[in-house]
Amino acid sequence: MKIVEAKKNDFKGITSLYYQLYPKRGKPPLVKFRTPRLASKIFVSKEGAKVIGFILAIFISYSKSRFGYLEELIVDQKYRGRGVGSKLVKRALAWEKARRAEVVFCTTDSAVLFYEKLDFRRPKRNTWIQRAP
Fold it and tell me: Who has the most CB within 10 Å: 8, 51, 84, 100?
């Protein structure tokens, strides 16, 4: 056995395996796999010329999967509690929606209630696992 980078002639085999993983997604002749497409935007909130908050939105698309991440939301301490964070999240979500993201993830320990107020939900059964080297 050897592990190599996928080539164009491997896509028929990749398609077959893909539908073993996702049998309910239907079967077009060939899944159009490409290197995942990644897009990102940083949105800022400004008071005059001063940046008072920002959020990083990341979008990933590969095959039929389209999802987003919200990262690095921070609002200057002097401006917290004024809706700045909510507006930044809503702007980032609108950007993700325009790309037809199926789901948008974020990770947080300290702002769970904040995100829940914006309709984020903790999964009942978490399918995410992680490794921190």
Answer: 84
pLDDT in tens, 88-125: 999 999 999 999 999 999 988 789 899 999 999 887 77
In this prediction the pTM is 0.76
What is d(CA 103, CA 65) in angstroms, rounded to the nearest whole number? 9
* Dist. CA 83–CA 93, nearest whole Å: 15
Most confident of 5-9, 21-25, 97-101, 124-128: 97-101
Distance CA 38, CA 18 (A): 20
Taking the C-alpha atoms of residue 49 and residue 35, their distance in angstroms, rounded to an integer, is: 38
